[in-house]
Design goal:
By secondary structure, the protein is α/β, with parallel strands linked by helices. It contains six helices and 13 strands. Helices cover 26% and strands 26% of the residues. α1 crosses α2.
Length: 225
């Protein structure tokens, strides 16, 4: 197993029979879907919700039935990846384009478990461009307001060069801050901008970060630990 697989395998061990499980989006979360599917095939009974249409498709292909999110009262455990995580378990997410649904599911979860390889651990967030989901109308005005916070912005596009459209029919602006000294404060400032739907700063949401290491070991960083 590579580092991502190691982290995902450990995280899936936290899923118990009868749980409502959130399935994340992205290259690391893919392995959590894979290992969850193996356990379901072996008899594990869960109710699963997906953080993106892409994840829902991958899960169904592997025999996991997906329940609409609004049909569950809460999520017992949500397993998802991150683009960056700091020592306080604050995160940057959204590299896969699903930050809004990921944040909604995580906020409804009793336990939000993040899986990552060692490269995602940082002293300060910001090296990875911060994704911000914005409505299409008024894009230039929203872009200028974001830039006033001290970042350079790039409109995310597909490999074909057209604007990337989220599952919620919005655009994503990737904001290049280089370093974010105060992530909780920045999250509030960004979300106060009219035209912003939400941003990829996940503050005080993760309960546990499981890190797969290149030497084959796995370490767990627990909130408040």
């Amino acid at each position: 197993m590579n580092a991502k697989q190691l982290a995902a395998y450990r995280a899936v061990e936290y899923i118990q029979d009868g749980m409502i499980v959130g399935l994340g989006t992205g290259s690391t979360a893919f392995w959590a879907i894979e290992y969850t599917a193996q356990r379901v095939a072996a008899g594990l009974k869960i109710t699963a919700v997906a953080t993106s249409e892409d994840t829902a498709g991958k899960a169904r292909e592997r025999g996991i039935e997906i329940t609409p999110f609004d049909e569950v009262p809460y999520v017992d455990v949500d397993i998802d990846g991150a683009d960056e995580a700091d020592k306080d378990l604050n995160l940057i997410k959204g590299g896969g384009g699903a930050l809004l649904r990921e944040k909604i599911v995580a906020s409804a979860s009793r336990q939000f478990i993040v899986i990552a390889d060692e490269s995602k651990l940082v002293e300060k967030l910001g090296r990875f461009p911060l994704p911000v989901e914005v409505v299409i109308f008024g894009l230039e005005h929203t872009t200028r307001a974001l830039q006033s916070l001290g970042c350079k912005t790039t409109l995310r596009t597909t490999p074909g060069g057209v604007p990337f459209i989220t599952d919620n029919n919005n655009y994503i602006l990737d904001c290049h801050f280089e370093v974010i000294p105060n992530a909780p404060e920045l999250e509030k400032k960004i979300n106060a901008i009219t035209g912003v739907v939400d941003n990829g700063l996940f503050i005080n949401m993760a309960e546990r970060v499981i890190v797969g290491c290149n030497d084959g070991t796995v370490k767990e960083i627990v909130k408040g630990g």
